[in-house]
Amino acid sequence: MEKLYINKNGLDQWFKQMIKGGSHVYAPVQGRDKVDFKRVTELSEVASDFVQTTQSIKKAVFPKAESLFSYQKSGKNVEVQDFDALSVSDKVLWKIRPCDAAGFASLTGIFNWDYKDKPYNTRLEKTTLVSFSCSKSDSYCFCTSVNGGPGSTVGSDIQITMLPDEGALVEVLTSKGKALVELSADSFEQLSKEIDKELYLAKVPVHFALEQVKEKLSVAFDSPVWQQQSERCLGCGACAFVCPTCACFDIQEDAKGSAGRRIRCWDSCGFSLFTLHTSGHNPRPTQSTRWRQRILHKFSYMPERIQKMGCTGCGRCSRACPVDMNILEHLTSIAE
Ligand code: SF4
Ligand code: SF4
């Protein structure tokens, strides 16, 4: 890992070079009442004072709806047009949070578990993740309880920590990060002295012991806790759609006459139709069984199968929930 310093003007110059180099840059932008990722062309468009965006930026590599392939039938012949890797543009995801970068590491585990997903992997290969460490947090954040932290570099290609002089410490973590820095090498300086980035990070308390949650979950399948916790859940799916690690999807056919395409679109294990069989049987017939699946998938099944957590403690699901279901409160009560 290389550590560099960049001043305010250098940051501006580097950003301009990214745009000039043809990268599509996505960054948090302040809207009327929320901050969300948008494509930007100027550094001045990027939001400065926020804890977290409402939506995660997973759609950059796992779009809400996408065509996996298309086909045209002619008599007995079928011509298949595969996913077009050449149509994927270079992207920079600027000012994501460390919990967002960690979310990409979880998604990569899911999309490479039993099958290497070409659309996902192609998009990720062409995407450079520039995280900014967090200088503030709120009561929904719990990254430090799930092995993360406001300055964690897991999943990032570059991490930037803003300094009081409006310059920044730049940690270059991967070859993709190095290539992005080399676009504007003159903008960077070697560090004149070691910078202790901890001084500039938000203080996020550890709310629960993760090992304790995992231990309790291993014997909780038939516990009444799922019924108690899910009583007010509406099954609206908002928590899954804003989450940086949720990857449930549905496959649909969009066909007309002899041509069509196979579409993949976001879904949620919180929806009552998600596991409904054609026979009418539903193995998860109630909201409590669906809530249990959500928690067990993130905290038991994913760590067992792909050695990744399904939650980065970003708190988005709790901020977005229309009935105030708070995952941090629920995990804390499970641990206790
Ligand atoms: S956002 Fe809240 S109400 Fe909607 S499915 Fe998630 S937990 Fe249930
Ligand atoms: S489950 Fe909630 S807190 Fe955890 S990563 Fe998803 S949105 Fe963030």
Topology:
Layout: E1 2-6, H1 8-20, E2 24-30, E3 35-40, E4 65-74, E5 77-82, E6 91-96, H2 98-110, H3 118-125, E7 127-132, E8 158-162, E9 168-172, H4 175-182, E10 188-190, H5 210-217, H6 225-230, H7 238-242, E11 249-256, E12 259-266, H8 287-306, H9 316-320, H10 327-335
Parallel strand pairs: 2-6, 6-7, 7-8
Antiparallel strand pairs: 1-9, 1-10, 2-3, 4-5, 4-12, 8-9, 11-12
Helix pairs in contact: 5-10
Bound molecules: iron/sulfur cluster (2 copies).
Please characterize this protein's 3D structure.
By secondary structure, this protein is of the alpha+beta class. The protein has one domain (2-335). Helix content is 28%, strand content 22%. It has helices spanning 8-20, 98-110, 118-125, 175-182, 210-217, 225-230, 238-242, 287-306, 316-320, 327-335; strands at residues 2-6, 24-30, 35-40, 65-74, 77-82, 91-96, 127-132, 158-162, 168-172, 188-190, 249-256, 259-266. The strands form 2 sheets. It has an 8-stranded mixed β-sheet. A 4-stranded antiparallel β-sheet has the order 5-4-12-11, with no helix packed on it. A hairpin with a 4-residue loop joins strand 2 (24-30) and strand 3. It is globular and about 70 Å long. Bound molecules: iron/sulfur cluster (SF4) (2 copies).
Q: Give the amount of beta strand, in percent.
A: 15-25%
By DSSP, the count of extended strands is 12
Instruction: Let me know the largest β-sheet.
Output: 8 strands, mixed
Give the bound compounds. Answer: iron/sulfur cluster
Strands in their spatial order, largest beta sheet: 3-2-6-7-8-9-1-10
Q: Please state the CA-atom Rg, rounded to the nearest Å.
A: 22 Å
